[in-house]
């Protein structure tokens, strides 16, 4: 019997590389995002991968450990980030709306939490479709415009910054997208979708970005741990959440 070849990193190993220093408390929401990305990512050979706006996370290189990765970002200083010093990774200072690559250059392209930061999102989508080879994939994550809010629970408003302050800090130009809006951007329905940060995990997300000290956040995370555990283990591909992960295969 021929053994099955895995091209993406196994889920457990991928989650273990969560870049947050406290991955099961302040970084639990990011762990949930990583699981959603893993669920939508195709397990196919990927030689050339383009990460658009990958910054300093290195998530795409983690996800596909055999791929050659190009990380293009507007912030030139991120070239010095540890993940961009990986021998497999080439950092490029550039603009998502005018990618400096020939047509059909990549097997797979990722845009994780990027689209909501770019005014001309239609140009970003066009460029993504241009540089991906026929049969290649585009992977996206973004807040769900209709479901995302901060804080998710009003009870946390006294300890959380206003949503507008977070948007300004993060450089958002829009709240996010519905799945229908994303499908319209890329000209076809997504082949795979998975929401993340469901209402139970939103408790932890609220605390992670609160104004509380690190020690107090830890205490509150501990008190909320039973809800977080239930939220984690019951979340399925079809479970509603406040953010969207989606994958399109280019015709």
Automatic annotation (TrEMBL):
InterPro entries cross-referenced by the UniProt entry: Methyltransf_11, SAM-dependent_MTases_sf
Keyword field: Methyltransferase, Transferase
GO molecular function: S-adenosylmethionine-dependent methyltransferase activity
CDD domains (alphabetical): AdoMet_MTases (cd02440)
Pfam families: Methyltransf_11
Entry's Gene Ontology BP terms: methylation
Domain Methyltransferase type: 50-139
Keyword Transferase: yes
Protein origin, superkingdom: Bacteria
Gene3D superfamilies: Vaccinia Virus protein VP39
Key word Oxidoreductase present: no
Protein name as annotated: Class I SAM-dependent methyltransferase
UniProt organism field: Rubellimicrobium rubrum
Record lineage: Bacteria, Pseudomonadati, Pseudomonadota, Alphaproteobacteria, Rhodobacterales
């Amino acid at each position: 019997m021929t053994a099955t070849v895995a091209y993406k990193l196994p889920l457990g190993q991928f989650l273990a590389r969560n870049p947050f220093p406290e991955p099961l408390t302040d970084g639990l929401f990011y762990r949930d995002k990583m699981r959603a990305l893993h669920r939508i990512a195709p397990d196919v050979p990927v030689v050339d991968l383009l990460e658009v706006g990958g910054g300093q996370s290195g998530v795409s290189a983690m996800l596909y450990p055999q791929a050659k990765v190009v990380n293009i970002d507007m912030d030139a200083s991120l070239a010095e980030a540890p993940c961009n010093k990986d021998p497999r990774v080439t950092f490029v200072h550039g603009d998502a709306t005018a990618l400096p690559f020939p047509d059909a250059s990549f097997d797979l392209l990722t845009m994780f939490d990027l689209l909501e930061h770019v005014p001309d999102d239609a140009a970003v989508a066009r460029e993504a479709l241009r540089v991906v080879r026929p049969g290649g994939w585009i992977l996206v994550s973004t807040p769900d415009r209709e479901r995302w809010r901060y804080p998710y629970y009003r009870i946390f408003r006294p300890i959380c910054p206003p949503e507008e302050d977070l948007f300004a800090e993060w450089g958002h130009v829009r709240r996010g997208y519905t799945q229908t809006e994303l499908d319209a951007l890329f000209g076809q329905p997504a082949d795979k979708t998975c929401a993340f940060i469901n209402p139970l995990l939103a408790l932890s997300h609220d605390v992670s970005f609160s104004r509380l000290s690190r020690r107090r956040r830890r205490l509150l995370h501990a008190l909320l741990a039973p809800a977080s555990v239930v939220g984690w283990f019951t979340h399925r591909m079809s479970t509603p959440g406040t953010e969207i992960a989606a994958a399109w295969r280019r015709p």
